[in-house]
Amino acid sequence: MKNLLKASFVIGLALVALIAAVNVQAQSVQINGIGSSALFFDLGLAASTLNGIAGGMCVWSSTGITSGAIANAIDTSMITPLSDSGPAWVTWTPSFGQSANAQTCNGPNVTSTTKVWAYLQTDSVVGNRCLFHAHTTFGSQCTVFYPTNDPLPENFVLTSPGAEFPLPPQIANALNNTLVNMAGTDIRPEDAVFATARALTPCATSVTTGSQYLGLGYNNGDNILSFFNNFGAHLLNFTLPVSYFVTPIGATPIVVVVNGDSTGFNNPSSLVTNLSSATLAMFLDGIFSFTGQALATPTASGAPVTVVIPEPLSGTSNTMEFNVPNTTANQTSQDVGLNQPMGQRDCNPVGPGLNPMNLMTASGGHRRRAIGTEQELSEVVDTANNGNNSLSYGFWSVANFRFFSNALAANARYLTIDGIDPLITRSAAYTGVIPTTGSATLANVSLNSVANGTYPIWSILRLVTVDSTSTVAAATLANATKALVSFGTTTARPDFVVAENMQVVRSHFIPPAGVGLPASAADGHVGLPTSPCTSPEAGGDVGGQVLTLRADAAFCLVTGVTTGQTGRRR
């Protein structure tokens, strides 16, 4: 979630000046990251283990709500600086080579050798934009500021009492005087710059002549708002640099969830357990809005449905958008689509229609905007806001779906899509019960349908950097994150398929709009290091057709092409 703040130009200049100041602690900062909500908890948990000592690292985390404990990303690329905030975590090495405790983690014991990792949750596009704006030829235009008032932890990452510690001002100042050096993202930078270009194109106008992709009508600097509170995500144009590095972590599915009652999704005579991609597209674009339309033979009957839609700057939204509604077959959208009913296009007439989005559908239900994974998923089970039958989605992880324990969400379930289960594909049958911490069902999560590409809605979680030093630090964090993941009877975090274990790749392509796009695309070959498709990965891949790595390798071997089968979109 991101908070809306606007600072005056004078304040903005002061902030830029502050960044220029030299602080001896800045040399200890390993990662000063920003970006995807899907990665937030896994990265934080991994960063809490980086010193390898029993008792782990010193950790501070914030929900991004409590006054005095909020981190802000300030972008100064426009005359009026704009700020995005959200949950954050910071980890640092305890003093004296010991385990973390109140003494070894406090300010007086912070030295120039203390190592620091930090991450501010915004979304994928904001993360990419802030990273690249921090490294422009004009100097830094995006900086993350952490509170320097020794704020108490909110135990958002490590939930056990006493597991986290106050953030020493020395650590906060070190971060505040260090350039952002990493973005967490669910989509490639090329897809992020296209998402920005699409959002800035006049509403319902093709992003390029003949394109099925229509603009959303926002202006540069607009804040895309949540219906549920005053949080938002700022839309700011940016340019891809000539070079950057992308470190893949792993692939995870988007899981579609519903909450229902006996007249709707949980009607015992017509229980909804599966949606086809075409049916899901019609719920997302507003054509379908009755629970009866989720059945194999759809009827405009049953209960009204509220669909919670994430902001178009999120990797979650883009992964869903270009794999389900806005494919070459469906050509519709969650926001503004070619085949979308005019009354459900969020346009007025060339700008966005409702900000925040809150469009009534034929059933009397709504399509409503949410910001961030936590809000998207928590609102599904909020019957006071959204009625008894609602639908949304989010990237799978145990932490992301913590709202769905039986005690909190007895009437909720996840759905299969096109008959494919995103989570449980061995040793157990589908029940719809969402695996949560401590439940026996976690042992049944395999993510096999992601590894082999049969489940249609997935993406690779990545870390983006712009220099070799940060790339090494990001690789260390990525490896620690991978080490948390396991499957089987003892697992606590079956959260993603490690990138090296993937059997498939998405066809890469050059998006139709965006500043700084590469000249050509290449699929890459993570998961098959012996592949003759040796060209470095380049181009967008969100919504690319799924290819087996071996088939792509065979294509390169036979044709002599080293880029793989590029330019193929779902």
From TrEMBL:
What is this protein's record name? PBP domain-containing protein
Q: Which domain of life is it from?
A: Bacteria
Q: Where is the signal peptide?
A: 1-26
**Keywords for this entry?**
Signal
